[in-house]
Amino acid sequence: MTQPILLRGGRVVDPSRKIDAQQDVLLAAGLIEACGRGLAAPDGARVLDCAGMIVSPGFIDVHCHLREPGREDVETVATGARAAAAGGFTAVCAMPNTDPVTDNQAAVGFIIRQAQRAKAARVHPIGAISLGQRGEALAEFGEMIGAGAVAVSDDGRPVASAQLMRTALEYARTFNIPVIDHCEEPTLSHGGAMNEGIVSARLGLKGIPSEAEEIMVIRDILLARRTKGHVHLAHMSTVGSVELIRWGKERGINVTAEVCPHHLTLTEDRVGAYDTNAKMNPPLRTAADVAALRDAVADGTIDLIATDHAPHHYDEKEQEFANAPNGIVGLETALAVVHTKLVAGGVLDYPRLVERMSCAPARVFHLPGGTLERGAVADVTVFDPRAEWTVDPAAFLSKGRNTPYAGEKLHGRAIFTIVDGEIVYTMPNTTR
Amino acid sequence: MSGALGKDLLGLEPLSAEQIKLILDTAEPFKEISERAIKKVPTLRGSTIVNLFFENSTRTRISFEFAEKRLSADPVNVSATGSSVSKGETLVDTARNLEAMRIDMVVIRHGSSGAAQFLAERIKSNVINAGDGMHEHPTQGLLDLLTLRDHFGGLAGKRVCICGDVLHSRVARSNIWGLRKVGAEVAVCGPRSLLPSAIEELGVTVFDHIEDAIEWADALNVLRLQIERMTGGYIPSLREYNRVFGVTRDRLARAPRDVLILHPGPMNRGVEIDSDVADGDHSVILDQVTNGIAIRMAVLYLLAGGNPTLAESAKAAAR
Ligand SMILES: [Zn+2]
Ligand SMILES: [Zn+2]
């Protein structure tokens, strides 16, 4: 039996119940027992003083890469889950582009077992859309979902075939899961290393035009309209994508979308003198794109924020820009980056931050959590909005160190991350 | 060591107009050395220079080697093509090895944009970019500037059109930066499929028709068309390229003024340029080759430490 926990005196932000008030939260037997003022601590309860803290339903990252199986030197399910907890995430969804690909129920079961052993954030596997992510034949959605997968995606590889995407959307309806697409028209993006524009022209790097993303965004929206399937668009990066999603939503098409902290805060200029920590796919775009994405995440056109956490070994990033792999780590910086740049920047308020990083991910992916309603799983994030810290990749729990935010001063940090009523992360030097 | 140019020469984009003028002025006296019976001065005696060529370029390598030898340096040629290890490992490992060997300068040619910068950040030796991917080829840009300046007497206000595959050309980028910094007007002309889509934002005019470019220009810098660009689907055929964009005698005959012709070589005669133009009265293509050695001597000399006042002693050395 887990020890009850009373979170006393924090600012409870729970948009699922439209709450933003100073309250206590009582957790017992792995569930939310009660929320309210002046709750009494039951016998044997641990009481955590949360004065000055934000207490919210646990953050959920629907898009990360944990590299196991295949590249355990870069990340494992366990290190990823611990990094997630350190970043305030109580649950993450792991993309299937592992080696071998997570395209069958055994592979899904393996990840779930690894996650259970880690006793950190929950890990929900995402199964592949196609066998081996080869873009040819559908993987066994039903079997994978039976084993615990929560969505399907060929992320890491775009779904080039419109027919396959159509079939996936139709077939996924049986299981009521989202089909996640990495929107990239491969013949347009081929060989590209960064956004196509003035900076790529200057640096002599092959560019990836916005249209490579947007063509697939509108294709997927139209296929969702045809099939009535649920398409979830990963890591949106352009003004045009935002406009197309808005168009789709206005017509009642079943489309949801995510944006990453880096696309909300950095532009193509960050590539500077070929800094591979600014190399990602989709690439960092322009200031106009960043502004449109900020508006979209503020008004809900983009439903949620996800990290696309993509750890790489340092010497893989330590090479010429065009040859370096795409991606950055994000689990341990996402909350602070969003808090520092978007909340303090006036783009999001606290309820919307929690909505985009907890409630919406749970709702869109049909996951436990995302609410502090009585009887819900006791997944809670307590974060200190005033905690100032400097990003030091050497201190990450993730094995990945590849971040463009190294050395940046941020504020906002998870103090306690609670999963199933158990504290899985306490910020070091926290005396409570 | 670092002199008036800083530690490295990675491109013309980071240089000021003054630095570019300094290099061109320093190159002038070095031209004369190549005219002598004994084409050698002791300026860089005792310094070791590695010519690190990950990509084949006989012309550029030989030009650097001549420049190094005429300054009495000890060049070592390393060609790292065809290595079985991945390019990234090679470059990092190469940097570590070069650092351990305490060489004085590295001249690097590499197929990846940013490779020279990558190396420069990791070693203490001076690094000279001899062409990195589609990024820059600064000494080529400088020798083009020197050739134009020799011919026109100055560069400010001169109109230079770069013709052809600007998209994949490091020569084009170095020319654009260099020419604009010294006050020339720059245009580009070629099929849009071979121009970067944001090219206007670099401050250049775009001509879609070679006839318009010729009418506008004082000089054309005709780029080599890589044959593989055709199979890459950028243009339908070499024949059509010549018909639509070729620099031909007929087209030049209709120009309102004499148009100077430059080409970085090697040429595809009958594709981007016709033989009678390449070998014609207004072609300065061979002057470019000669100037290339002087420019490289100037760059080596300035990076080796010299300070600008030493340009005087370079003149003395050349005397
Ligand atoms: Zn992706
Ligand atoms: Zn991803």
Walk me through the structure:
- The complex is a heterodimer of chains A (432) and B (319).
- Chain A has helices at 77-86, 105-118, 141-146, 162-172, 186-189, 198-203, 210-227, 239-250, 261-265, 287-299, 314-317, 334-343, 350-365; strands at 5-14, 19-28, 31-36, 46-49, 54-57, 59-64, 89-94, 122-125, 152-153, 179-181, 194-195, 207-208, 231-233, 255-259, 304-305, 380-390, 409-419, 422-426.
- Chain A is of the alpha/beta class and 432 residues long.
- In chain A, the strands form 4 sheets. In chain A, strands 1, 2, 3, 4, 5, 16, 17 and 18 form an 8-stranded mixed sheet that branches. Chain A has a 5-stranded parallel sheet with strand order 9-10-13-14-15.
- In chain A, a hairpin with a 2-residue loop joins strand 17 (409-419) and strand 18.
- In chain A, helix 1 (77-86) packs across helix 2, helix 4 (162-172) crosses helix 7 (210-227) and helix 7 (210-227) runs parallel beside helix 8.
- Chain B has 319 residues and is of the alpha/beta class.
- A 5-stranded parallel sheet of chain B has the order 7-6-5-8-9.
- In chain B, strand 3 (105-110), helix 4 and strand 4 form a beta-alpha-beta unit.
- In chain B, helix 2 crosses helix 12 (285-303) and helix 5 (138-152) crosses helix 6 (170-181).
- The longest helix of chain B is centred in the last third of the chain and has 19 residues, at 285-303.
- Chain B is globular and about 55 Å long.
- Chain B starts with 16 loop residues before the first helix and ends with a helix.
- At the A-B interface, helix 6 of A face helix 3 and helix 4 of B.
- Bound molecules: zinc ion (2 copies).
- The site of one zinc ion (ZN) has 5 residues of chain A, from loops.
